[in-house]
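User: Can you help me understand a structure? I only have the sequence.
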Amino acid sequence: MPGTIAIPRPRARSARAGRLARPAVLGANADQLRVLADHVGDEMGGDGREHACDLSVGGCRCLGGRIAAAAPARITEIAGHTAGRRRAPAAAPAPRPDAKAGYDPAGKGADGVGRASTALIGREREGAEIERLLESAVEGSSGTLVVRGEAGIGKSALLEHAAEHAAEMLVLRAIGVEAESDLAFAGCHGLVRPILGSLPELPEPQSEALQGALGLGPSTGADRFLIAAALLSLLAAAAEERPVLCLVDDAQWLDAPSAEALVFVARRLRAEPVAILFAARDGEPRRFEAAGLPELVVTGLDDESAAALLADRATEAAAAIRARLLAEAEGNPLALLELPAALSGEQLAGRAPLPEAMPLTPRLRSLFRERIGRLPEPTRAALQIAAADSGGDLPTVLRAAAEIGLPGDALDAAEREGLVRTAGGAIAFRHPLVRSAVHVDATVGQRQRVHAALASVLAGEENTDRRVWHQAMATVSGDEEVAASLEASARRAQLRAGHASAATALERAAELTVDEARRSARLAAAAQAGWDAGQPDRALMLIARVLPSADRDLRSKLLHLRGVIELRCGNKRDAITTLLEGAELSSDPALTLEMLHEAAEAATHTGDLPAAGGFNDSVAGLPTPTRRARFNQLTMAGFGKLFCGDDRSARIAFESALDLAGELDDDPRAQLWASNIAMGGFDPGVGLPYSTRAVALARSQGLLSVLPVALERHALNLFWSGQLDLAYAAAEEGYQLAAGAGHGGWHLATMASVEAVRGREADAREHAAQVLALAHASGEAVLASLGHSALGLLELTIGRPERAADQLLELVADSRPGSNPIVAVINVPEAVEAVVRAGRPVELIAAPLDRYRTLVLDAPTDARRSLLARCEALAGPGPPEEAFSDAAASAGSLPPFQRARGELLHGEWLRRERRRQEARGHLRAALELFRQVGAAPWEERAEAELRATGETARKRDPSTLDELTPQELQIAGLVSQGMTNREVAAQLFLSPRTIDYHLRKVFSKLGIASRTELAREDLLQRNAA
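Assistant: Let's start by predicting it. Here is the structure, written out as tokens:
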């Protein structure tokens, strides 16, 4: 079982630190004490191995400095290439297991004499990089490193090097084990077991979610991201007492929920004294995915280092044999250490021939198999049990061995051979390849016998899922009882957000199910769990397996799932076809409505608005037994009318839906659709209250599956309302959450738009290009429209109106394939300005302007009237002065950026009319508003116009809020509302220490010293979300 080891500091600890240390020691196994005794048995013989490290309830009892003295001044770890530089004198006799021995943090033996320290041969650069990471963490700056390389290359050695240099840190460990890779949160449980005493310090939703995930409390069905946020909070709480080092070995075998949670944590650590080191093996079918995290790729040792390591290991080898071994090992440290151990003394001395050379990985596996083959049959059988159990619990392995008639000392020969270590009730393999070799060599019948034995001895509720899984592995033919148990295990895993584990359990349950209908239902459930786990390819494969045999109702549900996957991750046109087929088969009105709703959404994304309108209209006669169902129906009706050009009927349906949304104020998805409805009213930013509510609900309820989409819409609303800093912060946060699932295009579009307004041309073009590429791949016309909108705004900002007109005219033209009416109409004022500034005929914009005019006259608001009047001043038939006056009269409800644009256009027109005095007031107003929102290129344009009137603008105030980064502004806004650091941390899924770090920077930049002063910053309170 993955566990931990706490390395005590040589100074007194608080009572809480002591509580943390005790379970750390109790949770460690022999593999996790390599820093003290790895390979000591190879140097000391059987007695040395036996006493190398003894764990008991009393704590950690190790020989400390005596072990270092008994071995040749080195502690060889799992990849085996740490070595000392000199031999040490003989050791004092090992103490009895009941002796009062403890860990020796100062590196001294009983005589107080310091021992030779360990060193990494040929890994000086990598060791230094890890040491820098630890130093930064101790100083309060978090860091993460993913160490990658092939088996035996020295990844684990580097992790142990980190542990040896972490004297001031609490060291937490987890080891991925292939046999546990489908047990949800097994890796996390092992890692945090020593710090579970800090759970009460977490916010209650996080504490409950993590306890449920780890099997320490009732499963809450919490979102897997809430569990990850709880893990972050738990590590941050532990780091309040003492810097924390997390060492995760064999990360490629971590269960998916644990891997996802740990990567989430690693990406969001910032100002905590926490360092995380992952070691992940290359060349395995399963890869540890950690995109965006720093990596350290470990390759073979250079010739000099390899020779030094071999010389230390094979002191008696002849020169010719060393040369042969060096050539065979190709710099792989494990091969350098293990190959000599496989040779006889005669072979090492060159007096007997060596075996023929083989490719590296097969050779090593063959090597271990040969060593295993020399063991007695009872020992090999006991090793098979240990390999199958993977929990590292020696009593469990011994009970299972007794169950099949093996003697109690069956493992002794394997321990003498150095293939396993046992200590303190734990058993660990010398290297994962040993476990693999044992497993591969076992026959099918032997594996079944082993799993059956383990299932029979695993008692207690805490072992229920492990027991069920061993029962399943021991069963070869249909068994409904075992299948039902697996299905129940899958349900428990789903309540812990362990959807990947649930999918595996359900798939295995289906294999053991005799009844065809029940088997199909379990495969369908496995497909749903696979999708919930973020594994669309796996889900689609399972759907394809079960579709041919599914009855009508199940087929409808499977098509619904496939359609949703295609909608979110694939081609939107394929989604339409699939969802319509599913809706035709469905006998459930609610499911039918949902599928038609999603088909309409897909059609909207592709730009097929007539089809979308038809789907929306088709649900008018369906029953709506709940308020949510009625809300969905009204929403679809409104968009159906909108896409058919009936703006008036659409508005009526939308108003009814928004009235109903007020009764669904605890439903974040309903608030999200309400925001979309408000956007459908064509007023920039009108959907902001709804998206604000959706974000708040998603945060408070821990619905991080909803939060990325809520932030997507919220960022767009913030941008359209002119709150650029907060728009960028929301988009950036949402993208970080969504990018891993491949649907961050809308967030990128908002980021590109903010960058466009601020003249960050390279960033805007890069992000817009990503948006258009994603839109092309998914057939998403709406997303493409947002990308073109950002590019058009960029060209307008940087003074290229001709290019802006090209982009925006295509965007707002009704004839454009895939044109979206909402995006098109909102961009009409931009297109009008671009056409006029480019000096093109206003007739080019006449048709879109006519539709905009009709909309405003049919449903007038101050914002709509102001924008229409501005367009009329530029391109209308009437006198510009009157239109500009009308625009100014109703501009109060416009967001600051749009008000500034109106003032700038009015001032420019007055200056051209040689009315400079009148122009100055408008230009000064535009300048201040542009400064307020941080639109520097527009500010420069207003300054230039003001200078042209003979007036010089006042110097920019350097203490304005635009000095804050988007994240700083976001945090400052929440704090200014009266939230504590802990509350803000829970909202943003960060740690309180990170919030404090950003808040101190905010205070420094704004020249303030208290939260009270921050609350006086009106802009923050007005813009906070």
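Now, to help you interpret it: The radius of gyration is 33 Å. Residues 1-118, 356-361, 1019-1025 have pLDDT under 50 and may be disordered. Let me know which part you'd like to focus on.
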